[in-house]
């Protein structure tokens, strides 16, 4: 009998799973369902579009014919509302019932709303989809003042969009520095200075108490908890994601701020898999359950999930993730899990060059490199090899990391 594989989500995780399924199971039925109105596009590049630096065309990755050519049934504008694991069916918002033998949930997340007064006013943006990017670009081009909230990897994209669009912006952060869970004030200072130079003023010990609007309901200013008011006809918020797992709420599939999977991307239901940002996965290098929001990791999880949907337990997810920022005239890269760990080492070199490595049980598990990315392959190699190296911080923090100088692994 022909196997039926159904994938919910046509982001990079769902789409790479579809591609792999077609390769691994040439005769199977493969269906991809997405609530978006367009097929896979490059989510990483939508910030460049919103800055006004890229046209639409290069952002699209798959045309509709990509699916037709591979005999993949793509359903656009279709929301999956419910999954019934016993019946092996799912339901769509239009009441259609679709059967599956194996199901992949690759539904990612939706930006979290700020729970303050007027947070749904006109002119306040969240950033996840191409549609969001179109609205941001149009509005940013016509805005003079702005506020950005959310001191992390997506918040800085919104800050960079303000800078590129010539908006006089304030970047309101709760703590004392940008991405305070991964960078120390020394490292973050490089980012703060670069933002300042581009017309985005970082404000620390701040946040949002409420937004103020005009008579038409359009945001005009942001009031922080200290009572300070910032003019803002444009507001961008990036304070995290709510994971799209509600379609499994009436099932026994284990969810915990995402969908829990093992290293094979399999849930506690043997016919249901998950991949991408939505997963709480067992990281075999870290040795614990964790979550990751990065393009490369989501792509690999999709591929691995598909292989295991066809041949259960055939390949585990073993991956060192990377995330780079290209908004400044110096490079920035975080890898692995820079916010976790029980030990760390960091060093500031000359201007705009800084690095930090995090360790768990003596092994590298992540880090952040600013200004000089040359040590990344050495650190990632040590991480993949799970070498105990935290006793050799001096060698690891040398400007040029020489793996020959790192003491051999203890047996
Ligand atoms: C602006 C921006 C910049 C980024 N920059 C970087 C970067 O520089 N480097 C990097 O590594 N990562 C970056 N990321 C993160 C990266 O894009 C994500 O980690 C990755 O796209 C996650 O892919 P995914 O397939 O797991 O989820 P998604 O891409 O979120 O795809 C999930 C899909 O499922 C759909 N869906 C959800 N629920 C349902 C439902 N019930 N029914 C049907 N469809 C549903 C969603 O609409 C969506 O299309 C960025 C993200 C954004 C938004």
From TrEMBL:
InterPro entries: FAD-bd_OxRdtase, FAD/NAD-bd_sf, FAD/NAD-binding_dom, FAD/NAD-linked_Rdtase_dimer_sf, Rubredoxin_C
Residue intervals of the NADH-rubredoxin oxidoreductase C-terminal domain: 329-386
One Pfam family from the record: Rubredoxin_C
Recorded GO MF terms: oxidoreductase activity
Domain FAD/NAD(P)-binding: from-to ranges: 4-283
Cofactor: FAD
Alphabetically ordered keywords of this record: FAD, Flavoprotein
SUPFAM superfamilies (UniProt xref): FAD/NAD(P)-binding domain (SSF51905)
Protein name: NADH oxidase
